[in-house]
Specification:
Number of strands: 6
Structural class: alpha/beta
Number of helices: 2
Low-confidence stretches: none
Mean pLDDT: 85
Helix content: 10-25%
Strand order of the largest sheet: 3-4-6-5
Largest sheet: 4 strands, mixed
Order of helices and strands: EEEHEEEH
Length: 114
């Protein structure tokens, strides 16, 4: 929500997608080409999780010079460095992997203890 002294100016939304399994650059290009603007949606962010750093930089596509929104494609290697634009998504990926690893190390087949 954007606000000013007079109150709320506008309200818009963002969609975030974390892509764990992909075919690298080909899928990045396919997503950028197939994205379409959606009503009230300002940003569509796609985060490609990679096993090793590919060196791919962020790619951004604007719809009608940004007036209809943006599509952004980012790459991230868990535990590695990340751009400011994904400072909220990268720690989520790291935490999800940490949680997954801790559950794999637990014994007892996942049955809750009483």
């Amino acid at each position: 929500m954007k606000s000013a002294l007079i109150g709320e100016v506008c309200r818009y939304y963002a969609d975030d997608y974390i892509i764990w399994s992909h075919n690298g650059k080909a899928d990045r290009q396919r997503i950028l080409k197939s994205c379409r603007p959606k009503p009230d949606l300002m940003t569509q962010r796609y985060l490609f999780v990679e096993g090793a750093e590919s060196g791919e930089k962020c790619a951004i596509r604007s719809f009608l010079f940004g007036f209809r929104g943006y599509a952004e494609v980012h790459s991230f290697t868990p535990g590695g460095r990340f751009e400011k634009r994904i400072k909220d998504l990268a720690p989520l990926v790291d935490k999800a992997l940490e949680l997954l690893r801790s559950r794999k190390n637990e014994s007892g087949g996942g049955a809750p203890e009483k």
